[in-house]
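F.,

This is the one I mentioned.
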């Protein structure tokens, strides 16, 4: 056993709400509005509502799981407790990809907006960084690393200050632009110029789900939260509702403030016309003072979110290591700071790696969104399985209506993944199947928990079926596929795959859950009913 320290419970309810809200307000508010408008037109408002409802449903499920099992890197550990180590191995891989690449996206966004003041950071006529631009991004990553390295209290306090500013500027932008609203903009080319396909695509590739996905950081730092059984559900629900309301008003303000004559050629070119959406609108309206605030926040908001997700990534690495399928060195917690510094180093290096190909915000967005949704989508099935194989587990927040909310949230998550398109699904789900095969190949050298290897295979086959079936329908479907299966039949197929996978996964979990005691990891013991396999 490692000689190590323990996590320190220093995060309060206000800290956690700021973490949740701060993680949802990064580059999403700065770029998504124009991308959504160019894909769905004014009907993008419907896309935001659908996205908000989807995340709220998942948030309710995470509230039950997070309150019952407030552990570091919990998003990776839930499926281990319900289905075994293979699930933790697969979820750890995909969640780490999503979180660390998201950190890279945020510094990319900060650099793009900073180029408004320092043009030398971005290549002329492109969104690609110059060498100076990449060094700017690298320095931001170093700043995140330092803020996370010393203690969780420093991280939480710095995040609260940043989030206060990034909350004020979007509200100011909404108020000012609503005074410039032109109601004819909502009908000039039709409310839904691209039909239902546009509404659906905007959710996945327009940046909506990317903007909303702030649940991971809340549950990832659960071991460091005071009174987690009450704090986590409140923070999850309030963060989601607040973010949904503000994003909806931002979209209304953006659409309404665009000069109507620009819309004469339609909505499809809006994302190019307003590549830095709210800054460009402020410039076109002659609101120089607002431009200054927006650019300032455009540098601060993504950096704040990147800082949060670097912290969450290190806890994901820690949770992955605790599941027994990643090197034990990443379980080590610094005694003085209570920070898993080895895991933080790995997260930092991976975040730097994602910046090396110089990707643009638009290129990474669909991949990160799909990866995050997939990592979140397992939660309903884990929750359903744990109700069967850990019935005695204390659940301070017991979600009523799980029989409906569970499968419904999984269906919606599957549709969001499907809408991300074949190119994203092919490599993302394909890589998960390859990782599964690697696990089988090296089963004798990969450490496992007390569950038999045969049981782990049995409990994870539903996920492999789900991945393979989703790849097939994506290839045959209408979102980047060959369109052999048209709408609405592709939706019906995705729904059928989701329902089959949900109940298969719920009923083939471990016979009895194996749950670690949180007091093994934290300085302050939190009562958790330990459930061990007999």
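My design for it:
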């Amino acid at each position: 056993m490692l000689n190590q320290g323990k996590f320190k419970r220093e995060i309060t309810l206000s800290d956690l709400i700021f973490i949740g809200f701060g993680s949802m307000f990064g580059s999403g508010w700065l770029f998504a509005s124009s991308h959504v408008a160019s894909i769905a037109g004014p009907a993008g408002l419907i896309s935001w509502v659908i996205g908000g409802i989807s995340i709220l449903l998942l948030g309710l499920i995470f509230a039950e799981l997070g309150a019952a099992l407030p552990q570091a890197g919990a998003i990776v550990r839930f499926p281990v407790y319900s289905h075994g180590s293979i699930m933790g191995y697969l979820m750890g891989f995909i969640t780490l990809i999503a979180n660390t690449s998201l950190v890279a996206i945020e510094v990319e966004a900060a650099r793009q907006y900073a180029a408004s003041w320092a043009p030398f950071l971005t290549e002329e006529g492109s969104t690609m960084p110059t060498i100076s631009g990449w060094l700017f991004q690298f320095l931001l990553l170093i700043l995140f690393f330092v803020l996370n390295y010393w203690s969780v209290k420093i991280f939480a306090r710095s995040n609260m200050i940043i989030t206060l500013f990034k909350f004020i500027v979007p509200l100011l932008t909404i108020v000012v632009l609503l005074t410039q609203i032109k109601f004819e903009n909502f009908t000039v080319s039709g409310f839904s110029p691209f039909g239902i396909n546009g509404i659906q695509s905007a959710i996945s590739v327009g940046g909506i789900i990317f903007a909303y996905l702030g649940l991971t950081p809340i549950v990832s730092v659960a071991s460091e939260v005071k009174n987690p059984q009450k704090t986590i559900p409140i923070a999850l629900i309030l963060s989601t509702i607040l973010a949904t309301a503000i994003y909806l008003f931002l979209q209304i303000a953006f659409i309404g403030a665009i000069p109507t004559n620009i819309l004469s050629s339609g909505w499809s070119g809006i994302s190019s016309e307003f590549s830095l959406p709210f800054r460009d609108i402020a410039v076109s309206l002659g609101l120089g003072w607002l431009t200054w605030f927006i650019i300032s926040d455009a540098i601060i908001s993504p950096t704040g979110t990147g800082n949060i997700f670097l912290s969450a990534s290190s806890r994901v690495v820690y949770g992955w290591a605790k599941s027994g399928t990643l090197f034990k060195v990443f379980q080590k917690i610094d005694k003085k700071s209570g920070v898993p510094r080895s895991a933080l180093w790995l997260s930092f290096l991976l975040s730097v790696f994602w910046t090396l190909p110089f990707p643009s915000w638009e290129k990474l967005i669909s991949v990160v969104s799909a990866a995050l949704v997939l990592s979140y989508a397992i939660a309903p099935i884990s929750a359903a399985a744990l109700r069967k194989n850990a019935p005695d587990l204390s659940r301070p927040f017991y979600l009523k209506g799980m029989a409906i909310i569970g499968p419904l949230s999984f269906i919606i998550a599957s549709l969001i993944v499907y809408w991300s398109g074949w190119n994203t699904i092919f490599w993302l789900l394909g890589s998960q199947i390859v990782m599964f095969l690697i696990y089988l190949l090296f089963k004798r050298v990969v450490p496992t928990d007390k569950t038999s290897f045969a049981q782990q295979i049995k409990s994870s086959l539903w996920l492999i079926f789900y991945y393979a079936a989703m790849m097939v329908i994506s290839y045959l479907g209408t979102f980047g596929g060959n369109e052999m299966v048209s709408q609405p039949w592709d939706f019906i197929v995705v729904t059928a795959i989701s329902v089959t996978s949900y109940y298969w996964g719920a009923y083939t979990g471990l016979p009895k859950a194996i749950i670690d005691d949180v007091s093994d990891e934290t300085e302050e013991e939190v009562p958790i009913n330990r459930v061990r396999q007999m």
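The domain at 13-511 is CATH 1.20.1740.10 (Amino acid/polyamine transporter I).

Talk soon.
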